[in-house]
Here is the input.
Amino acid sequence: MKLKTALLGAIALGAFAPTAFAERASDGIVKVLYSQAVSTLNPYLSSGTKDIEVSSLIIEPLAGFDSEGNLMPRLVTDIPTVENGGVAADFTSITWKIKPGMVWSDGTAVTADDAVFTAAYCMSPEGGCAQAAKYEGVKSVEALDTQTVKITFDAPKPNPYTALVGATAPLLQKAQFANCMGAAASACTEQNFGPIGTGPFRVTNFITNDVVEMEANPNYRDPAKPAFANLMVKGGGDAAAAARAVMETGEFDYAWNTQIAPEVQMQMEKGGKGQFVSAFGTLVERLEMNMTDPSADLPEGMRSTAKHPHPILSDIRVREALSKAIDRGLLVEVGYGNAGRPTCNLVPAPAIFASDNTGCIPQDMDGAKALLTDAGWADSDGDGILDKDGNKFSILYQTSVNPVRQDFQALIKGWWNELGVEVELKAIDGGVYFGGDANSPDTFQKFYADVEMYANNFDGTDPESYLAAYTCDKAPRPETQWQGENINRFCDPNYDAMVAELTQARDIKDRGTLARKMNNMLTKDSFTIVPLVDRGRLSAHSNKLGGVALNVWDTELWNAQDWYRLK
Here is the structure.
């Protein structure tokens, strides 16, 4: 069967569009502001979007996605397909050809051995790879010659564009990371903070949770790019301050994820120094319900692990009640305006993968209260807080520091209080919350809370790897250095079986059907994930920064090599 082009969209084989500059490093410095500070430049050790995005300036995958969601070559000659012989007719393998003359920023050659090493690095069971879902179903990765990489799968894989594709699965230099395999991965500070890459920039200075300073990569494959001699990423603060630094003061050229209220956006636009850019993709603000017990009374290493189910949230009636109490329409109105849409789906797009699931949108307080009553919760002592078997219904609800998220916390706490639930709120600095520090109690992976809120999305237009993240084996735990994409510790053998089925489904309609079923298993059938808002990406850039093209299918910095200073 021929590869369905509808699977991932039309394939882009051409180079980037010409830019308005002709000389590398001729435009000085470009300043980028991330309200969530970068904690590592190795995306295999972090699920934080800010770490993945900024590291993409330095280390790259074999192929990425353009602003339309089409596959595009980065380090390879073209995109393998069945038609050109790069993908086996039975979909059991894919073969990539690295472009001749490709070199790392240190001047050494990029080879197929680097790809083989990278796959082994992430697939090592002791390493706790944060992007293990990208390598789901990979049987072997081998170097056929210095420029040819063959990936063989356990079974036919109609979407073979996962391993070493997209910003979450970049190539690592074998020579640099050779001693960082397995349990040693997180201890390789020098490598993780200063990876040698093939991207348009290379690291000159990195202060974790603060600033990343870079210079133009002198060995970048296009001799005319990048236009900027230096790039600085400053982290910290909040979304409103980040937007203001571009839109009002002009101190920065680009601000990522300017998640601020609509009326504040309108006021800032009057400054005339910059503009907001937005587009809808697959970014969903959601609540994750902890299926395990995060109690500090448990020994370290036992908290938030499958050995101890959550004493309250393990009951689906409780999770559904908490979902029913939420007015998603009001959340959108308060936090996003036209840049948000209420949603009940983890996968909101593309349309073929989006479930017809709208039942959660109307708020239903009476239904929520009835579910809790049915579950045995009642206010037996009249203090306004539900109790059961002598235990109070009390939960800790955490998220990152962000004005919109704190507004959401306040509203949701109010609705849950109305149910009789005691709610403690916690806001954590985004650089820490979305960081990968195994020693920190405050990362969203460790999940030392009952409920947590964040937004996430997937690269490209096919959600296979995204949905594969929720298999039982991908729950963060001490044995994986607290890395893993299955944040809420959901575990259902039936779901795992559907992941295996999705990886082998060839027809795009069948893939859509499976993805929708899996979406529903995580959301309306179990309420382990409670989607809130289908968020449009919203960032800001200076009116003097040219070449910016917002990309919701890859990283926002996907074409930083094409940025230039408008004179």
In short: The radius of gyration is 23 Å. The chain has a mean pLDDT of 93. The chain is about 20% helix and 20% strand.
